Amino acid sequence: MKTKQRQRQVKPAEVRLDELVSAAQVLFLEKGMKATTVDDIVERAGVAKGTFYHYFNTKTDLLPALRERFARRFLERVSEAVEACAEDDWRGRLSAWCQRSLSICVEDFRLHDLVYADHYHDRSDPDLNQVLDQVEAILRAGGEAGAWPQADWRRLAVIAFWSMHGLADDLIARGGDSEEVGRFLSQRLLAMLGGTGT
């Protein structure tokens, strides 16, 4: 009687890589990076140890992949909230950016702190620049459409980002309603843009 041989499932490289990154993310948050081993990661991902070493030399090499994924998902989630507003609703789009950015920072602060532990003061951080580009684009487009006076969009984007980040840190530390704080931030920014945020 012939025995049925188990066929090895061949997955695309990007799927294997995503499985490793996802496994590491869960374990790093559950156990901490120091306590997590490569064996833990491959077991959770359901891959051979050799697969891990095909992509990474050490577990700390996973951090850039985790960081890239965090930033990409952050931008996508914020963009979805902004794009849910009417194209010409510039106040709504800026408010959506403020509220969704803030809520993500509060919801995912443990992952954020994990992946950016060594990057907080990196002024050339491409992830930070992408977020600044995102809010700058909203400010610029609103200004060009006449929703508020022309201004120095990049500096306003910097104010928007760091205000959002500081308010998120305060919410995490002291608690509160992220939706209410998001409204507060958007009202203050709108007031700066043209005295219409009250």
From TrEMBL:
Q: Where are the transmembrane segments?
A: none
Q: Which UniProt keywords apply?
A: Coiled coil, DNA-binding
GO MF annotation: an example: transcription cis-regulatory region binding
Family annotation (SUPFAM superfamilies)? Homeodomain-like
Highest taxon of the source? Bacteria
What Pfam family is a match, any one? TetR_N
Which residues carry the record's DNA-binding region feature? 37-56
Every copy of the HTH tetR-type domain together lies at 14-74
What name appears for this protein in its UniProt entry? TetR/AcrR family transcriptional regulator
- The source organism is Alloalcanivorax xenomutans
